[in-house]
Write a structure and sequence with these properties.
The complex is a heterotrimer of chains A (214), B (321) and C (538). With 214 residues, chain A is mainly alpha-helical. Chain A has seven helices and no strands. Chain A starts with a helix and ends in a 5-residue tail after the last helix. Chain C is globular and about 75 Å long. Classes of the chains: A mainly alpha (214), B alpha+beta (321), C mainly alpha (538). Chains B and C meet through helix 1, helix 2, strand 7 and strand 9 of B and helix 3, helix 5, helix 10, helix 11 and helix 12 of C.
Chain lengths: 214, 321, 538
């Protein structure tokens, strides 16, 4: 059992105030992330509108199967994460750790598949820069597509890596009996963050992979 | 009078309109600045701390709040309306404007008159005649600024922008680059020389180079444009004569105006907008042709359409066989 | 004299106790030290700029050096001084105390915010001292992403990192204001400094991520030669401008709103009156924050932007002026029938109100497209924003530092010197920047290393003013540091001000309050204090 008096930070009067503050803080942080990714989405939308044939052609060269698998993997990881939060609410230490590990594993599978996709693109010379090659008249503008593809999925992957790091920390803290049904907020905040990372992917996938696949 | 100017010269048709609005804004600024400074000063002195008087609290007043919200609102509406109508009026390019091309690059302005006369960092124009500048940058963003005319326009790479003016007084006026563009940004300056019409014609006649149309015709051959855009049985591409200023129909049935921007785009990025019925076989000339050469080619292609037809908007039948 | 009383400065000693502190008051002082260093560095660049501009020729430094000087002056002053100054120093110190809390909601994030600021600052200093960057603080493409030969990426990384400091501070302030107010401290009993800080925090949180991604894209384009903003590769330079100004316009409200909050505190205390129209001032802060996000296109009237978009931005820019005007009138009305004293903080506050009025009104010139076409990218714009940033924010900052100095340090600063310095600043400021309005309308462009000879006299006037202004800034450095050792001991409430921060000792104990206050009165309850005074006199 955790010592809930040490879980209360000194600046707060009671645990509810702390919980509400943590929650509000995380939601505000997620709002900043929306603005951050929003800038990229805006840039992508502008160029997709202006160079639609090139973007369609480039998008078709992405592997929809791998992208689809990744989407399913990430959605499952959100499920395991949500279950982990629920387990933390109920005080099941071992369950929490197991579910966090499952989430990390699924997240790592996602990253592995992503790395493989990146490698494929490298082989096909689709990495923007001096070695970029894309046959056909739309080559130049296809490079813009791939620039956005790599920056957006790269940023997303970075956020996932950070998320995995946070989950490892949560596993460690759970092992050390830091949490209890009265105080499990860091796990809840981790869940919020992970769901957000998932939602970003839910927008990225159709926007990048499913352009004009008629 | 005092050895240095405090106000710029008035040398274009729109300058005094802008100045009038400016002075109105100055009056508003002075009025309210003086009002606030004076009130603060007055209250600070009249109600200065004194042992035999205490401060009188107030609860605020809705009437005052409404007044000093509404009055600024009305004033800003007046300024906005006046300024917008001035802006709209000033942006209408008059007919029969003399067309001059400008290319900006680090760190100079190259100006090209239609008869072939070109100049660097100087722009000679006749007085009392509208002039329309078509401008592009070879590299970074610049800005073509003539304070005496109260005008500037950012000059962009990859796009044409236009600016028009009508000078009202002969003289020499500053020309500045007004968008920071690198090391010698403050050296990218020159002068606008406004001359009486006869003097301008004389100056213009001193042309030693060939006209843009002549240069353009040579480029049209040298770049092999003539091989495709030819007449007769060999026609594989749209005939360019008679097209300038008309609407052409594209593959997806939309139309686009056959103007300088479209010609430039077709040279740099030919597959962007293909005329209906023609194959996508035109190669790109990006990197092979400079902005100045593009302007020369445009001048030539434009010359293939009689001037009368250039202002029409009828959709020409350019569909291929 | 209570020399054995424990407070936040003497409760622990040693570098570690400062570098690992969680106390918002100590973190505020860490920020104070950092931003003061950057202020004087940015100021040194300004000195060199004004010295160069004494003569029409570019003869003091080379063109490339000059371009780096004005770029670094802008980058340092905007990102490393103005944006953090009042929020991270005064906001950090005062916000918890003003609402009756023991600390901010997230003290460790607060410390992290300072470390992030410092790391970003070191990165940028590295860029400065290894050759500098010459793109202008606005980083317009394709110059910055393709053509510039200076340390663009390093500077962009430095600003990117420091942006997170801003975001974390904003996040902390919002949660603190929502969740940590003492019992009885309702929203409409809050000091207006808290309202302003809250509005500022909203902008920090929503706007900063956009500049982050924009600079990231510029860096990526520069490093990999891809075409997001480069027209040769199909990119659009105007997209950069939209993304950049979407943050950088609200950023100017990040810079001025906290100053307005300080002024509300000063004007009330030194007139012994509650502010005239409390809720109007409070809502105006929020209105400025919201409207401020809708006007960015007024930086792009001549950029090639659509004229219809231009008209919309012009209209909205006029609208955002209105809440600022409302505030100015309310402050002025606060003086009416008050009991006004001329202490240095009040001199700064009165200076702010006047200079902000003038500077704000010159914004109307820029919102009017027909006039902006002439004065865009000239010294008119430079004068306008310095009136607001320096005549406004810096004066409010100095006023606030003086006002809360007794609370922060437990000492009184020398009032005579402070009033003198305030006057020197006011005179020096106007002499420096007023001639620039005239230069701007004459047509002198910004960022010019050399200029036509007929502009020289006005430039010399401006440089003369700058030398006076510099004296005005050095004086407080000297006497404030002097006062730490030799100043008279301040009591808990030397100004007899309202506000919870004055209900604790100076300097305050680490926990701020011995017991959580319970608030049963409105802000600026000077009426009660004046009654007390009257009773005492009788």
């Amino acid at each position: 059992m955790s010592n809930s008096s040490t879980a209360l930070a000194h600046q707060f009067d009671d645990i509810e105030q702390q919980h509400e503050s943590d929650s509000l803080g995380m939601w505000i942080f997620l709002a900043t992330e929306i603005l951050f990714f929003g800038g990229m989405f805006l840039g992508y939308s502008v160029y997709r509108a202006v160079y639609s044939p090139a973007f369609s052609e480039a998008s078709r060269r992405l592997d929809v199967l791998l992208g689809g698998i990744n989407t399913a993997v990430l959605l499952c990881s959100s499920l395991t994460m949500a279950l982990a939060v629920r387990a933390a609410q109920l005080g099941g230490r071992r369950t929490v750790i197991a579910l966090l590990i499952a989430t990390i594993v699924l997240g790592s599978v996602f990253l592995g598949i992503k790395a493989f996709e990146y490698y494929q693109k490298y082989e096909e010379h689709f990495i923007p820069g001096p070695h970029f090659e894309f046959a056909g008249a739309n080559g130049r503008h296809a490079q813009i597509f791939f620039s956005f593809y790599f920056v957006m999925t790269g940023m997303h992957a970075l956020h996932m890596v950070v998320g995995i790091g946070i989950m490892l920390t949560m596993i460690w803290l759970t092992k050390r009996r830091r949490f209890s049904p009265e105080y499990y907020f860091p796990i809840e905040m981790t869940g919020l963050y992970w769901h957000f990372v998932d939602i970003v992917w839910v927008f990225l996938f159709p926007l990048l992979y499913l352009v004009d696949r008629s | 009078m005092i050895g240095f100017p405090l106000f710029p010269e008035v040398a274009s048709t729109i300058a005094s309109g802008v100045d009038l609005l400016y002075f109105f804004l100055v009056a508003i600024t002075v009025l309210f600045s003086v009002l606030i400074f004076a009130l603060i000063f007055y209250f600070a002195v009249k109600y200065r701390r004194s042992p035999d008087r205490k401060a009188q609290q107030s609860e605020g007043g809705l009437g005052l709040e409404i007044t000093w919200t509404a009055v600024p609102f009305v004033i800003t509406l007046v300024i906005f309306t006046w300024g917008s109508s001035l802006y709209i009026a000033n942006s209408r390019v008059p007919d029969r404007a003399l067309a001059i091309n400008v290319v900006g690059r680090q760190w100079m302005w190259k100006i090209q008159h239609p008869n072939g006369r070109s100049e660097i960092n100087e722009l000679h124009v006749p007085v009392r005649q509208p002039v329309k500048l078509t401008m592009a940058s070879q590299d970074v963003i610049h800005s073509f600024y003539i304070p005496a005319f109260r005008l500037k326009q950012d000059v962009l790479p990859g796009r044409y922008v236009t600016m028009w003016f009508e000078p009202t007084r002969p003289g020499e006026y500053h020309l500045f680059c007004a968008e920071y563009c690198g090391t010698y940004h403050s050296g990218m300056i020159g002068r606008v020389v406004v001359m009486e019409p006869e003097d301008f014609q004389k100056w213009l006649g001193g042309v030693t180079e060939e006209s843009p149309v002549q240069t353009g015709e040579k480029l049209f051959t040298n770049f092999n444009c003539v091989n495709c855009h030819a007449t007769g049985a060999l026609q594989r591409c749209p005939q360019l004569g008679g097209l300038y200023g008309t609407e052409v129909r594209l593959e997806d049935n939309s139309t686009v105006k056959f103007d300088e921007a479209y010609i430039r785009e077709s040279i740099i990025n030919p597959n962007a907008k293909i005329v209906k019925g023609y194959p996508a076989v035109m190669p790109t000339y990006r990197g092979q042709v400079s902005e100045e050469q593009i302007l020369d080619l445009i001048a030539y292609i434009r010359s293939l359409t009689p001037v009368k037809e250039q202002t029409g908007s009828a959709t020409k039948s350019t569909e291929g066989r | 004299m209570d020399i054995y009383r424990e407070h936040y400065l003497n409760c622990s000693y040693g570098v570690r106790s400062w570098l690992l502190t969680k106390d918002h008051k100590r973190i505020a002082l860490l920020f104070l030290m950092s931003i003061t260093l950057f202020f004087f560095l940015g100021g040194a660049f300004a000195v060199l700029i004004r010295l160069e501009l004494l003569t029409p020729q570019g003869d003091l430094v080379q063109a490339e050096t000059y371009n780096k000087l004005f770029t670094m002056h802008g980058v340092i002053m905007v990102f490393f001084f103005l944006i953090p100054s009042i929020p991270s120093v005064l906001g950090n110190f005062l916000l918890p105390m003003m609402i009756g809390a023991r600390d901010l909601a997230f003290p460790r994030l607060n410390l992290l915010s300072w470390y992030i600021y410092t790391i970003g600052g070191l990165f940028t200093l590295g860029a400065v001292f290894s050759g500098g960057v010459d793109t202008g603080w606005t980083f317009y493409t394709p110059y910055s992403s393709v053509y510039a030969n200076s340390h663009v990426i390093a500077t962009a990384v430095g600003i990117f990192i420091t942006g997170f400091s801003s975001i974390l501070t904003g996040l902390n302030f919002i949660v603190t204001t929502h969740k940590m107010r003492a019992p009885g401290m309702t929203w409409f009993r809050l000091p207006l400094f808290v309202w302003s800080s809250y509005a500022t925090a909203i902008i920090m949180v929503l706007g900063t991520p956009v500049i982050a991604i924009t600079l990231l894209l510029v860096g990526v384009e520069r490093a990999f030669g891809i075409g997001i903003f480069d027209p040769r590769l199909g990119g659009d330079p105007l997209l950069f401008q939209h993304l950049f100004w979407f943050y950088s316009h609200p950023a100017v409200y990040i810079m001025v709103l906290p100053g307005m909050g300080v002024v509300s505190e000063l004007v009330t205390c030194f007139s012994r009156k509650r502010v005239f129209g409390y809720s109007f001032v409070a809502f105006s802060s929020v209105a400025i924050a919201v409207l401020g996000f809708l006007v960015w296109g007024h930086h792009m009237f001549v950029s090639g932007q659509s004229p219809y978009a231009g008209m919309i931005f012009s209209f909205l820019s006029f609208m955002v002026a209105i809440p600022s005007a409302v505030k100015v009138f309310n402050w002025t009305a606060t003086l009416y029938k008050g009991s006004v004293s001329y202490d240095a903080p009040m001199l700064y506050a009165m200076g702010f109100i006047g200079l902000f009025t003038t500077g704000g009104l010159t914004g109307l010139f820029l919102a009017t497209i027909a006039v902006d076409v002439h004065v865009h990218d000239t010294y008119f714009v430079v004068a306008h924003f310095h009136y607001i940033m320096v005549g406004g924010t810096v004066m409010a900052y100095l006023g606030g530092i003086h006002y809360w100095w007794p609370k922060i340090s437990g000492k009184l600063y020398p009032e005579g010197w402070a009033r003198f310095a305030a006057l020197v600043v006011f005179v020096g400021f106007n002499l420096t920047f007023f001639p620039q309005f005239i230069l701007g309308y004459l047509g002198m462009p910004r960022r010019y290393h050399a200029y036509p000879a007929e502009f020289q006299v006005l430039n010399v006037m401006s440089t003369a003013g700058a030398s006076i202004l510099a004296v005005g800034y050095v004086l407080p450095m000297v006497y404030l540091i002097w006062s730490i050792r030799y100043g008279k001991t301040a009591g808990d409430n030397p100004w007899d001000a309202t506000g919870l921060e004055w209900q604790t000792p100076s300097p305050p104990p680490t926990e701020n309050f011995a017991a959580t206050p319970v608030v049963g009165w409105d802000a600026y309850d000077y009426g009660a204090k004046e009654e007390e005074k009257e009773l005492q006199v009788v």
